[in-house]
Amino acid sequence: MDQTVSPLAARRSGPLKGRVRVPGDKSISHRALIVGALTVGETAITGLLEGEDVINTSRAMRALGAKVERTGPGVWRVHGVGVAGFVQPAAPLDFGNSGTGCRLVIGAAAGCPITATFDGDASLRSRPMKRVLDPLERMGARATSMTEGGRLPLTLAGARDPIPIVYEPPAASAQLKSAVLLAGLAAPGETVVIEHEATRDHTERMLRHFGAEVTVTRDGAHGRRITLKGQPELVPSPVIVPADPSSAAFPVVAALIVPGSEVILEGVMTNVTRTGLFETLRDMGAIIEELNPRIEGGEDVADLRVRASALRGVEVPPERAPFMIDEYLVLGVAAANAEGTTRMRGLKELRIKESDRLAATANMLRANGVDVEIDGDDLIVHGKGRVAGGGPVTTHMDHRIAMSALVMGLASDKAVPVDDTAFIATSFPGFVEMMRGLGGDLS
Ligand code: S3P
Q1: CB of 200 closer than 6 angstroms to any ligand 1 atom
Q2: Is residue 234 in some structural domain?
Q3: Using CA positions, which residue lies closest to atom 10 of ligand 1?
């Protein structure tokens, strides 16, 4: 990561107008590289997100023995080593800011007879890894960390003969589920994950796309039971990465709160395990139309037409949290611009993201004159229809804090200054230029 600090401020802007495509989905981009690397033969990927998080995963795949090449903008080729075929890396694997890249590769490596050291930046070094290591140790891997709570840097010895397990994740986390499924590829028999609350399902879809046998059945009111048949022969299959709904969230909210705006976002993934924000915004009165719904690369996508809308406060149920876990910061911005109170329930997992996003959302809004409360794991925003602005925002190495604060500044009375926008490059390269192109005043 380039360590240059890049401060920026957003000012009240005229109507945002235009048609844009946000970069490829981060979750799918990581998985395409990792599953491609566990496949025998060559996988072609188009629309790969070329953000720093994904680039770090591509480097890790190379260090683990896959051949990974970029042949054009967003166009990549992965020549894989086959299930359980990772080779021992010569140096520690550095995942920078990316929890997803790191945890998924820990899972994939846990099923290979190699020893690898995992590391990351100060933000990633502060995030919990123990919960991902626990099930992997049950499968036969061994991890050693010098720090409490099994944080990075840590060294993992993968299992020579991985054991398939039945695993119930203690938290609604697609990363935990995915780590176990990726380790389970190398185990004989069936690896089962029972999630009490369904989370994004890209790993299941991608493994099936590459020929693995994965069955998914409902389990309880909100849960799913996922069964993977181990030791499949993964067959290369091209991947087209759709536009990332978690990145689209920022121009969507900006268009809703800047008066007179109308913006079209092309090819946004509308997989229901990712669209909790759009559903919530519609509950708040947002005009978000899905044009030209279609299937691309095995995922539902649509063009979203978003118009500035009068928003009202709503209650967001806790079971929706896994379907919008990365979107609460920017939902906080929408809620502050709405009339009335929005209560977002069950946000425990937000405390362990790139930063403590529960505290960060409250601080960002409070610094800009918004009335906010934290009640247990709930965030309550008392919207007044507009935001005063003027309050400096600290990004804490968190890309989504930076983008949310800048979106807020486009509609607030006074400018919103952000201390550092450098981390935006982890997930949304070109964000500032795109928002300027739509008419946003960022300088
Ligand atoms: C992701 C899962 C989520 C999300 C992250 C991407 C994934 O994390 O916050 O940005 O690609 O699996 P958790 O699974 O820990 O909630």
Answers
A1: yes
A2: no
A3: 326
